[in-house]
């Protein structure tokens, strides 16, 4: 839970102090702290506790308006009636709220899509409340399949308010990009359990978001034919989940640092990726070994991932990978001489607690720009690089390994020696090196084979 936004205007209300009402003597900051641990519904109910509580909840920096819990226990024949009643209450809460919102989540029924209520809610929380993070979830009863999701029909420019930077849609059917016109304000887009007629429609929707940096797609196409095209030079994080089979997919993203694939049915030769920061070895592509549901993660460890304000990538992956299947593929590009990149690499590896079928590491060689007094990874040689790692990897492949680089050698040796990290096979690419570099790399491999625990790892060059 977050505290109230500091951008909200200060309240000028004066409340009488009742000597018999101890709550009325507490400072607003403490009351807000108490409310931060309550749901929106519980927070609204506190208004009956004391005169001081009447308006406190109205200055929360977030609202979660959820009718799903009620609808889940409502008989089918009464869903319409109950949803309308709850919609009125939700409208009242929005209208009574004061100040601005950092984030707002609205979970509703299909009626609100059809009668204009949803449009009114969106206009209020974006235009009046200046919501930064908006999540819309359409209630779909368990008796219905999500392929029958309700049509999201909204006015043009609905999501174009300058304050809105993150949008999440769940359980809708989209037919066109009208509501997304001129959405240069959005940085993050999540489309979850979305039904779209065909891939070209989704291409048009995504083309309206020229400023997006994060895209998460979990969509179903009614027509499996066509080409899905994503072209965005601001895009840094792309996650693809459960895309059914289409003819081809094209991604053009010069700044892409993370490509996370849960499950897509696109054959290796029909997936076009133009992203200079991402190294993809298509020999381990998803259609190999009948592992269409095997997750893949391609990650360029960069300054973008280190920024606090963009830690959404960690939030998405951290929560999404909890229920991952046991084996998966991870490919990372990292500069081992950069301590910040090594720290991020550790975080990424710790997400894969169930093991990796294959781990690819592409070593980046760039000039180090360390701040004064900052130590390199080599200065911490005796410290474990993965102190909390309990990682099992079937196969490790190393690319661009510099045998004369002490920091890279120290990193690889810890992969081999550190007990909590279990590596069964290690392949080190040397065939493309010029003679001197190849000699140094093969000499380093020979040293790795002499390590104390080398007998547990099969090491070879390719």
Please explain how this structure is put together.
With 462 residues, this protein is an alpha/beta fold. 25% of the residues lie in helices and 23% in strands. The protein has 12 helices and 19 strands. The protein has helices at residues 28-35, 40-45, 68-72, 79-96, 111-114, 117-128, 199-207, 303-306, 312-320, 339-350, 406-417, 435-449; strands at 62-66, 103-108, 133-138, 150-151, 166-170, 172-174, 188-196, 214-221, 227-231, 237-241, 248-252, 258-261, 271-274, 296-300, 329-334, 356-363, 392-399, 422-428, 458-461. It has a 16-stranded mixed β-sheet that branches. Strands 9-11-13 form a 3-stranded parallel β-sheet. Helix 11 (406-417) links the parallel strand 17 (392-399) and strand 18. Helix 4 (79-96) packs parallel to helix 6. The longest helix is centred in the N-terminal third of the chain and has 18 residues, at 79-96. The chain is globular, with a radius of gyration of 26 Å. The two termini are 51 Å apart. Residues 1-15, 143-147, 287-292, 321-326 and 369-383 have low confidence and may be disordered.
């Amino acid at each position: 839970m977050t505290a109230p936004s500091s951008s909200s205007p200060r309240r000028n209300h004066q409340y009488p102090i009742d000597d018999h009402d101890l709550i009325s003597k507490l400072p607003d900051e403490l009351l807000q702290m108490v409310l931060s641990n309550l749901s929106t519904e519980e927070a609204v109910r506190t208004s009956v506790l004391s005169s001081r509580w009447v308006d406190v909840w109205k200055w929360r920096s977030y609202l979660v308006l959820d009718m799903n819990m009620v609808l889940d226990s409502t008989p089918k024949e009464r869903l319409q009636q109950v949803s309308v009643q709850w919609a009125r209450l939700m409208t009242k809460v929005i209208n009574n709220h004061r100040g601005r919102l950092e984030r707002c989540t609205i979970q509703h029924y299909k009626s609100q899509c059809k009668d204009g209520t949803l449009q009114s809610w969106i206009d209020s929380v974006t235009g009046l409340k200046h919501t930064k993070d908006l999540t819309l979830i359409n209630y779909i009863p368990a008796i219905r399949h999500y392929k029958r999701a309700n049509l999201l029909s909204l006015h043009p420019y609905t999501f174009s308010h300058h304050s809105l930077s993150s949008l999440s849609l769940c359980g809708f059917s989209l037919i066109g990009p009208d509501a997304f016109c001129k959405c240069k304000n959005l940085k993050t887009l999540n489309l979850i359990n979305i039904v779209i007629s065909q891939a070209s429609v989704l291409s048009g929707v995504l083309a309206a978001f020229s400023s997006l940096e994060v895209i998460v797609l979990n969509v179903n196409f009614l027509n499996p034919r066509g080409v899905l095209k994503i072209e965005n030079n601001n895009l840094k994080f792309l996650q693809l989940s459960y895309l059914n089979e289409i003819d081809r997919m094209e991604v053009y993203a010069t700044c892409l640092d993370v490509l996370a694939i849960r499950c897509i049915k696109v054959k290796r030769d029909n997936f076009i990726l133009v992203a200079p920061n991402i190294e993809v070895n298509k020999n381990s592509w998803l259609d190999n070994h009948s592992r269409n549901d095997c997750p893949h993660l391609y990650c360029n460890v960069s300054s973008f991932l280190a920024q606090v304000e963009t830690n959404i990538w960690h939030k998405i992956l951290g929560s999404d990978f909890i229920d991952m299947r046991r084996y998966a593929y991870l490919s990372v590009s990292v500069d081992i001489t950069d301590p910040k990149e090594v720290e991020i690499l550790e975080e990424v590896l710790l997400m894969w607690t169930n093991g990796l079928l294959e781990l690819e590491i592409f070593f980046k060689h760039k000039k180090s720009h360390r701040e004064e007094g900052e130590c390199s990874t080599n200065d911490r040689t005796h410290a474990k690089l993965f102190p909390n790692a309990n990682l099992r990897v079937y196969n490790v492949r190393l690319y661009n390994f510099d045998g004369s680089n002490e920091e890279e050698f120290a990193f690889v040796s810890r992969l081999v020696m550190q007990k909590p990290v279990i590596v069964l096979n290690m392949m080190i690419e040397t065939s493309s090196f010029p003679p001197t570099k190849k000699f140094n790399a093969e000499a380093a491999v020979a040293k790795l084979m002499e390590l104390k625990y080398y007998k547990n790892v099969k090491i070879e060059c390719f």
